[in-house]
From TrEMBL:
GO terms for molecular function: 6-phosphofructokinase activity; diphosphate-fructose-6-phosphate 1-phosphotransferase activity; metal ion binding. Keywords: Allosteric enzyme, Cytoplasm, Glycolysis, Kinase, Magnesium, Metal-binding, Transferase. Pathway: Carbohydrate degradation; glycolysis; D-glyceraldehyde 3-phosphate and glycerone phosphate from D-glucose: step 3/4. InterPro entries: ATP_PFK, PfpB_PPi_PFK, Phosphofructokinase_dom, PKF_sf. The lineage of its organism: Eukaryota, Viridiplantae, Streptophyta, Embryophyta, Tracheophyta. This is Pyrophosphate--fructose 6-phosphate 1-phosphotransferase subunit alpha. Regulatory subunit of pyrophosphate--fructose 6-phosphate 1-phosphotransferase. It comes from Urochloa decumbens. One of its GO terms (biological process) is photosynthesis.
Amino acid sequence: MNADFGAPKELAGGLQQRRALYQPRLPPCLQGPTVRAEYGDATTTIDPSCAHVLAQAFPNTFGQPLVSFVAPADAAAAAAEERPPIRVGVVFSGRQSPGGHNVVWGLHDALKAYNPQSVLYGFVGGTEGLSANKTLEITDDVLASYKNQGGFDLLGRSIDQIRTTKQVSSAMATCRSLNLDGLVIIGGVTSNSDAAQLAETLIQNNCKTKVVGVPVSLNGDLKNQFVETTVGFDTVCKVNSQLVSNVCLDAISAGKYYYFVRLMGRKASHVAFECALQSHPNMLILGEEVALSKLTLMEIINKICDGVQARAELGKYHGVLVIPEGLIESIPEMYALIQEINILHNNNVPVAEMSSQLSPWAAALFQFLPSFIRRELLLHQESDNSAQLSQIDTEQLLAHLVETEMIKRTKEGRYKGRKFSSVCHFFGYQARGSIPSNFDCDYAYALGRISLHIIAAGLTGYMATVANLKDPVDKWRCAAAPLTAMMSLKRHLRGPGAIPIGKPSIHPSPIDLKGKAYELLREKASSFLLDDFYRTPGGIQFEGPGSDAKPITLTIENQDYVGDIEILKECLSKVRTMVKPGCSREILKAAISSMLSVTDVLTVMSHPLNAELPLYHFK
């Protein structure tokens, strides 16, 4: 074991020490040692055409019910019950995200409340530590200096992968060696997809270990009907929003620079979107908009230049443009080029020879790009075989091409303003190790406690979830959702003949371009562009006014999916109560007519061509 992991660390005076004393708030159902599990209906998947594939791939875990956790009817009697000790392992599988340590803390406290003899093992070095059975027993003393702290330095992380036959077999061997009752995997879309497969494999091999996933990702892209947001997203957006607002004030103060700011977030644009709503930069380019409209690189450049020119006509020669790091993959020709390069990587073609093996059109595009972008596009892939988006300086590419276009417009007499000047920034790693916000501290701690109750209930292949997050903590709904209900297959075409292909996975969820938050952004876009309507949110507040602020996108959207399911159940129950044998024929006919109409509509909406799949499924 690396001696640095799990060792007590010195907390700097002031903020770090005060944060260590913060006690996360809990919804009522999690305040005792046990909960009551209420089992709902069997689940399906968002894409009906994938259901049969998922059922075949996950015969033991597909179609499991949604489970809600509520306080026991008799809390005193439940607390007095004897409960066997439980042995659980926990691993950081995703990239470091503020709040991850609180998941471990919540899991530990729930374990000890359940039975003081329970044991929690942390796997040192992420999934590689899981495979190699490198453990650290998590105790109160070990946790003391990591409570409410940023980073993943309690245990560390590695390649974030439990996918190959060897990796899965090694993980199963570790579970058996430690006699684990449960394994909690903390991570994002890729890690939880691996968790689903591991859960199925353990059942098939008669391994008793229950697998639970926890949605922790700064990208905010693990978002679906069960997951409203991920742990860490709030903190990262608050930190980055402060940085963006600082740049906005610097831009208007100097009055002569355009700042091109790229924000972390992988393929989806959630971080850039939220930060734009919090800080009000002049321009925001979302990958989802580009993908939907199929905008080419030069069309994007022209849109930016038009904005620069419109501002110049008002005597403004400064501005701030925010883009997500996944933007480059959303541009059709760049996406196709990256796919060709990925194929060459998979075929082990040496980097020095790749440019000569590209197709003619890809080679022409490759040569058109600046040398620094060509070099970055050829970097080796991430562990999930995707491009290293954090290493591709898309903001510098845009700034370079915008400057070239503005020079061209000046020579042609179409632009008569001052010379265009740019400054580029990439805000990514700066926020990953931040001290988590109150919201992320509370949310993560609750998810850790829920994870224990999932294992205690004998459930596997589930994700710990909380609904009603926009409301105060005492209104939160705690539940367990099957991982397979969040999975689907990729589609590569729209329209007739579009066949789901590939391996079932949980896919990154894009921004909803029909949602209320996006509608708000569109309403403000013109004002943002021309009026310098900059907003300064400041640093994260831990006490006093603003300390309980939540992501704007979370508070605007109505995402209480579990609550809506309950409303539907109540409606169906009322129908059953009113339409019983002996009711009048008029009531019966009205019920039949209404139900036939409803089923006809739902049949059409459930057709594969009408399923609301993420945009990235159609790449």
